[in-house]
């Protein structure tokens, strides 16, 4: 079973694909540390915007790095640490792609 896992924290978006709960096929992280450094800390509005802008790319990159397609993914799990409302909507739209394939 191949699981696509999406995790977001205040300044990072990560996607991993794990096979049979043990083998990591890919792990892609988009970090915003450099973006927020100039502000002295994370700015939620900026962080949310960057999560939204990058999530599709990070998912596609993880799938490509694993040598898979959307159809090869059996299930997914999402952990949205910051509970960013707009980002959660985008994540749900991305995950629905799996149901359509």
Radius of gyration: 14 Å
Number of strands: 4
The fraction of residues assigned to DSSP E strands is: 25-35%
- Report the CATH superfamily: ATPase, nucleotide binding domain
Distance between the termini: 16 Å
Helix content: 40-55%
For the structure shown, list the relevant keywords.
alpha+beta, 43% helix, 4 strands, Nucleotidyltransferase, domain 5
Description:
The structure is a single chain. The protein is elongated. It has helices at about 35, 45-65, 85-100, and strands at about 1-10, 10-20, 25-30, 75-80. The chain has one domain (about 1-100): ATPase, nucleotide binding domain (Nucleotidyltransferase, domain 5, 2-Layer Sandwich), CATH 3.30.420. The chain has about 100 residues and is α+β, with helices and mostly antiparallel strands. Strands 3-2-1-4 form a 4-stranded mixed β-sheet, with helices on one face. It starts with a strand and ends with a helix. A hairpin with a 3-residue loop joins strand 2 and strand 3 (about 25-30). It contains 3 helices and 4 strands.
Quick structural overview:
With 101 residues, this protein is an alpha+beta fold. 43% of the residues lie in helices and 30% in strands. The longest helix has 22 residues, at 44-65.
């Amino acid at each position: 079973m191949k699981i696509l896992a999406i995790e977001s924290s205040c300044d990072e978006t990560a996607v991993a694909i794990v096979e049979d709960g043990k083998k990591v096929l890919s792990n892609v992280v988009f970090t915003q540390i450099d973006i927020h450094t100039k502000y002295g800390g994370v700015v939620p509005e900026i962080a949310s915007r960057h999560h939204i802008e990058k999530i599709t790319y990070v998912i596609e990159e993880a799938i490509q790095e694993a040598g898979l397609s959307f159809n090869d993914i059996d299930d997914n799990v999402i952990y949205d640490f910051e509970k960013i409302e707009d980002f959660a909507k985008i994540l749900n739209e991305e995950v629905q792609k799996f149901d359509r394939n």
